[in-house]
Structures are given as structure tokens and as C-alpha cells.
Design brief:
Length: about 250
Amino acid sequence: MRTVLFLDLDDTIFQTRPKCPGDDVLHPVAHRRDGTPLSFMTPRQRAFLEMWLRAATVIPTTARNLDAYSRVDLPFEHLAILDFGGVVLLEDKTLDAAWDAQIRPRARAFAPELRILHAAVERIIARRRLGAYARVIADFDMPLYVVVKHPDGDCALLAVIHDELRASADLSRCFVHQNDNNLSLVPAFLGKEHAVRHVVHHRLGPEPVLTIGMGDSLTDAGFLDVCDYSLMPRACQLARQRLPGCEGA
Ligand SMILES: [Mg+2]
């Protein structure tokens, strides 16, 4: 039976240097726009990915947009799910038209609200002089979600923004997700699980497939739950929620 691994990328199969174990030889696999290395794989992560690339169809399932995904230097050969499920990118780097026809009208309809949320975040950052920055992540001419980061990785300041947003903005049509130095405001019509279901039903052929999901964040829980089996890195955000008491060795 064909095995398909839906694989989150950041903090699942690679991570930034401060999150890497201190004594491992690190292999750079994702880069900034200027070409400098940003994220790294450990030898264990490389061995893990190589095993799955031999054994399964590996489908990256990530919040990255095409620009950020293009800066990941790993030998993925099949389609990819980007932008929290907003884009299904085919092998020839074109859009899955059927999926795009579902997402694009919703993204267009939500665009004014996304601008309002982005402006609300920027007001909080400016008023409280938090030094964070907020960006609307767009792809294929669709504004899709807002991401907030702090240049010094100050997660506590992002939590302040999150708290103020809850008190002052209408968040009823989106979900707010924080994992370390990444606060995302994601419209409710997005979700990796929706795109995974679409791919399973429309892109993998008529034969049954064995599906495995792997991710580290609470936003990955939905797509792990639509797969036959779930995998998580040790002591990640999702493991801490699902396996209380696990803090790793
Ligand atoms: Mg992740």
C-alpha cells in the first residue's frame, strides 16, 4: 500500500540554531532571503527524513508561503501544502486549480478583515513600543494570514500582543496561534487539515493509501487527526499538550 507522510517543516524536521542541541553537527537547510542559513537539521533529523523519503511519498505541510518554501533546500519531489493549507502546490509548481477555486474567493472576502487585524496589531506594537513586527503573508496574489515576530525572540511580548488583541479586536472569524516567537492570526477558512483531506481525496489516486501526519504545533493537530497515524517530535508544543508530563530527556 502506498504510504504518504504529511510533514510539517519548521520545528518538526529542522529549526533555528538556538533551538538546536549544542553538540550536534548541524546541516543548514533553510535560508533567509539574503542566502544566509537560518534553520538547521541535526544528524538524527537527516536520518529520519532520509528514511521517510525512501519509504513514502513525503508531502510538506507547512505555514510557509511559496517564497519561504523555496528557500528550503530539501529534496521534496511531490506536491506541497503551503500557507496553513491555503495553497496546494503541484509537482510542476502550479496551483491545484480545484483547491484554489475553493480558497481564493474566501481569501478575497476576508482581505478587508485581515487588513483591520494587521492594523490592530501594528497599533498595539507602536503604542506599547514592543519592537515586534507584523506582516500579512500573501501567496499567489492572495492575502492569507498575519504573522507577528520579535527580532530578539521575545515570546513574552508576543503574548502581550495576543492578550491585547483578545481584549480589543474581533477574533471570531480567525484563530490565533502562538508557538515560541511566532504569533499567527489565521482566518478560520484556512487549516492544514482541509488541504490534507483534499489531497487525500483528489490527488493520490483511487487506491487506498496509508496516511501519516507529523507536526509539532497545536495548529498541526487537525491534520494529524485526519491521518491514520500521528508523529510528533519529542517535547514539542503538541506533545506537551497531548502527552502531559513529557518534557524530553
Ligand atoms: Mg512547525
